[in-house]
Specification:
- The protein is α/β, with parallel strands linked by helices.
- The protein has one domain: Alpha-Beta Barrel (TIM Barrel), CATH 3.20.20.
- Helix 6 packs across helix 7.
- It starts with 19 loop residues before the first strand and ends with a helix.
- The chain is built from 11 helices and 12 strands.
- InterPro entries: Aldolase_TIM (IPR013785), Elp3/MiaA/NifB-like_rSAM (IPR006638), MoaA (IPR013483), MoaA-like (IPR040064), MoaA_NifB_PqqE_Fe-S-bd_CS (IPR000385), MoaA_twitch (IPR010505), MoCo_biosynth_MoaA/MoaC (IPR050105), rSAM (IPR007197).
């Protein structure tokens, strides 16, 4: 690694620091969730077009010199990619990286939980939209709920912080919101309800009218059944508004992913599995790092390109969406964006 003359902490033009990288290790997934992709799946990238683990490791090391202290591995489903755990071991050993975490659907995760604990993984976000097996099958098009729950309890037993991510879908899992929130009564978990977004790989056309469950309505629904949601402290840059409920061990969170109320404190980048940088979930990609890596760019050149891309990012998700050359968000899948 060459020495850098760039600042050790980057800020964008709006004063927000770069501290957090969401790293997609694959675009492949073993589920076919309604809100993410069509039943037949999406067209996956050829293997040679995906970043290698060596390339990812080099990019993360560069980013730690620019202020990144937290990396969350996403996909697709991270455990679909072979040799993920050895890669995580190398990531965890990088100087300057303080927080390594993971988002997973839990289908393949349970056998790896002891290793995650050994590596010091601080938190796992578990995608789980229902506790009902039939509705799980209808949403994901796979009968894998027992495997997911096995992962859930294994993570709790290992002492790893668990955050459940539940996408709120009109007409599909509204009856599941309260049962999911009830998990926080007796368990030290956070259950986070996420506004559905239009990134579904062409599964259906999503509009503001077809996505009626915004963050306000979600909160009203939960309070009508569980009592007052009391705002709790959240760290700067957090996407979820967090709440406590009287008599509950855990917390409930609500993520205004489509309303985009948290953009003002965003401190993250996304690196897609094929090496694209997204400075906002809603932009169309602003930098091709794979081309730079395979074209012989130095670490310094990559760092300078990253700093420029981060500095010039949109003020919020609405601006990023307006600047897209192609505006049909539903053509993209969350599996290719990086969770």
């Amino acid at each position: 690694m060459s020495s850098f003359t760039l600042p050790t902490t980057l800020h964008d033009a709006h004063g927000r620091p770069l501290e957090y990288l969401r790293l997609a290790v694959t675009d492949r997934c073993n589920l076919r969730c309604f809100y993410c992709m069509p039943e037949e799946g999406i067209k996956y990238m050829p293997k040679h077009e995906l970043l290698s683990y060596e390339e990812m490791l080099r990019l993360v090391e560069i980013m730690t010199h620019l202020g990144v202290r937290k990396v969350r591995l996403t996909g697709g489903e991270p455990f679909v990619r072979r040799d993920l755990v050895p890669f995580m071991e190398r990531l965890a050993a990088l100087p300057g990286l303080d927080d390594l975490s993971l988002t997973t659907n839990g289908v393949l995760t349970a056998p790896h939980v002891p290793t995650l604990a050994r590596l010091g993984v601080k938190a796992v976000n578990l995608s789980l939209d229902t506790l009902d097996r039939q509705r799980f099958f209808e949403i994901t098009r796979r009968d894998e709920l027992p495997q997911v729950m096995r992962t859930f309890y294994a993570l709790l037993d290992a002492g790893i912080q668990v955050k459940i991510n539940a996408v709120v879908m009109d007409g599909r899992n509204i009856q599941d919101l309260v049962p999911l929130a009830e998990l926080t009564r007796d368990l030290p978990v956070e259950v986070r309800f996420i506004e559905e977004m239009p990134f579904n790989g062409g599964s259906h056309v999503a509009t503001p009218e077809s996505l009626p469950w915004n963050h306000r309505r979600i909160r009203q629904h939960l309070e009508a059944h569980l009592g007052a949601l009391v705002p709790a402290y959240t760290a700067t840059g957090a996407t979820a508004d967090e709440y406590t409920i009287a008599g509950h061990q855990g917390r409930v969170g609500i993520i205004a992913a489509y309303s985009r109320t948290f953009c003002g404190t965003c401190n993250r980048l996304r690196l897609t599995a094929e090496g694209g940088i997204k400075t906002c979930l809603y932009d169309q990609g602003v930098l091709d790092l794979r081309a730079m890596l395979r074209g012989g760019a130095t670490d310094q050149e990559i760092a300078q390109a990253l700093s420029q891309a981060f500095y010039h990012r949109a003020a919020n998700g609405f601006e990023a969406e307006r600047l897209r050359p192609v505006h049909q968000l539903n053509f993209e899948s969350m599996a290719t964006i990086g969770g």
